[in-house]
Amino acid sequence: MKKLLTTTLLLCASSTAAYADGLVGGVGLTRLSLENAGIDIGMNALQGTVGYQMDFDGFSLTPEFRLGTGIQDAEFGGVNFDIKNYYGVNLRAAMEVGNVYGFISPSYTHYKLGGSAAGSNFDGSNGDLGVGVGAGYRFSGNLSAEASYEWINDVDIVGVGLRLTF
User: Fold this and answer.
1) Is residue 106 one of the residues assigned to a domain?
2) What gap in Å lies between CA 129 and CA 121, rounded to an integer?
3) Which among 29, 39, 59, 163 could disulfide-bond with 144, CB atoms 3.0 to 4.6 Å apart, if both were Cys?
């Protein structure tokens, strides 16, 4: 999975010369928290995004694709949990005032989790609709930092990242 993420990011970066107008990409750290039946489990992931931003006088729409993989496992009740991978699509609507912007983003995300306990391994996956909100600060014409929160059924995703506009 890590090879797939690296390959995807390299392909996106190498294709910017051919499709530069409105292309955006980003990388960030996320924390996925699962809250189900009184169980609260948090795991960290590395996420990459690529999209195409369409600007309309201070307002923008950006369809995006994202791909992530786990970088830190969690333990609960003697069971180790990890994020195998996740991917998703979203439509991000943003409003910018000066160098500050806010966004809302309906999404679909599919995630695959794994676990192990007492020598047994298991995997499970799920996909669901969600909604995210966030804010960012544009340092220059093409570099921004942002923070976000997304809710997908029983999964909360909090993230920070860098975003490049090409």
Assistant:
1) yes
2) 27
3) 163
CATH of the domain at 144: 2.40.160.20
How many C-beta atoms surround the C-beta of residue 32 within 10 A?
26
Expressed as residue numbers, the domain containing 73 is 2-154
What tens digit of pLDDT does each residue of 106-138 get? 999 998 988 888 888 888 888 999 999 999 999
90/23 Cα distance (integer angstroms): 15
d(CA 26, CA 165): 9
Residue 159: inside a domain: no
In a domain, 160, yes or no: no
The kind and range of the H/E element at 7 are helix 2-14
Q: Evaluate whether residue 19 is within a structural domain.
A: yes
CA distance 121 to 116: 4
Task: Give pLDDT tens digits for 23-39.
Answer: 999 999 999 887 775 67
Looking at the 3D structure of the chain, how many domains does it have? 1
Side chain identity, residue 68: G
Tell me the two tokens of residue 135.
């804010």
